[in-house]
Amino acid sequence: MRTYKLTAYEKTGKLITEETFTAETDDAAKEKGHAMLEEQNLLEQTHRLASPAGKLLLFHI
Fold first, then answer.
1. What pLDDT shows up at residue 23?
2. pLDDT tens figures, 9-18
3. Residue 49's closest CA among 37, 39, 40?
4. What is d(CA 48, CA 6) in angstroms, rounded to the nearest whole number?
5. How far apart are CA 7 and CA 2, in angstroms?
6. For 28-57, how does the pLDDT look when each residue is reduced to its tens digit (9 = 90+)?
7. Dist. CA 15–CA 18, nearest whole Å
8. In sequence order, what DSSP letters do the residues of 8-52 get, joined into one string?
9. I need a labelling partner for 54 at 20 to 30 A (CA). Which of 2, 11, 29, 60 fits?
10. Listing from the earlier edge strand, what are the strands of the sheet with 15-23?
11. What is the pTM for the complete model shown?
């Protein structure tokens, strides 16, 4: 399992949420990250999901 980091921000730059979670693959992490954002109603906020290698898997401005 690999550890991924999901962050979401307000347009002003204020941090809304910062969460870490584990997943087997980058694709599984993208699905889980998207579901977490949807659950918290944050899909339209600025957000990013980074892999342990620093690769951006989800990104929205």
1. 98
2. 999 999 999 9
3. 37
4. 6
5. 17
6. 999 999 999 999 999 999 999 999 999 999
7. 7
8. EE-TTS-EEEEEEEEESSHHHHHHHHHHHHHHTT-TTSEEEEE-T
9. 11
10. 15-23, 2-9, 46-50, 56-60
11. 0.92
Q: For the chain, how big is the Rg over CA atoms in Å?
A: 11
Number of residues assigned to the chain = 61
Region for 17 from its dihedrals, namely left if φ exceeds 0, alpha if ψ lies in -120 to 50, beta otherwise: beta
Question: Under 8 Å CB-to-CB from 13, ≥6 apart: which residues?
Answer: none
58-to-15, 35, 42 alpha-carbon distances in Å? 17, 12, 13
